[in-house]
Amino acid sequence: MVLAEAAGARKTLTSEDRDRGAACFEQAMLALMPVYGVGRSLSEATVSSLLVAMIVGNVALQLPLGILAERFTARHMLLLCSIVSALACLILPFVIHSAAIWPLMFVLGAVSYGIYTMALIEFGECFSGAMLVAGNAAFALIWGV
């Protein structure tokens, strides 16, 4: 993926750039989904359950996403996870008071956290040995920031 800079030069997005984006998304969902849900007249218990559905989706679908990454490449899956995450966020306001919110949150959890997984796979394909260990530590540090 290429970004156009002001000088017309090209800069390639790194795994760390993708990691920062995924970390921001995760923190925003965990911090702001309760506020959004309560603002849309959902009970605190329902909002908490929606977050659980999102986390369960993350846990349940990481292995299938990894298998798909082996078949179609992590880069393609990263793009797919990003697109599905964006679409799910766009659909959210329209289904928040219907039963469709539950599978949406399940899928959103899987694909939004899948962005991190795909970025890690790409990182692992680029480095090995001591560089992989050091890079993974840096990757985890950036995720926490």
Summarize the structure in words:
With 145 residues, this protein is mainly α. It has one domain (16-144). 81% of the residues lie in helices and 4% in strands. The protein has five helices and two strands. It has helices at 15-39, 44-72, 74-95, 101-126, 129-144, and strands at 2-4, 10-12. A two-stranded antiparallel sheet has the order 1-2. A hairpin with a 5-residue loop joins strand 1 and strand 2 (10-12). The radius of gyration is 17 Å and the shape is elongated.
Please write out the topology.
Blueprint (H helix, E strand, L loop, with lengths): L1 E3 L5 E3 L2 H25 L4 H29 L1 H22 L5 H26 L2 H16 L1
Antiparallel strand pairs: 1-2
Helix pairs in contact: 1-2, 1-4, 1-5, 2-3, 2-4, 3-4, 4-5
Core attributes:
145 residues; mainly alpha; two-stranded antiparallel ribbon; 5 helices; 4% strand; elongated
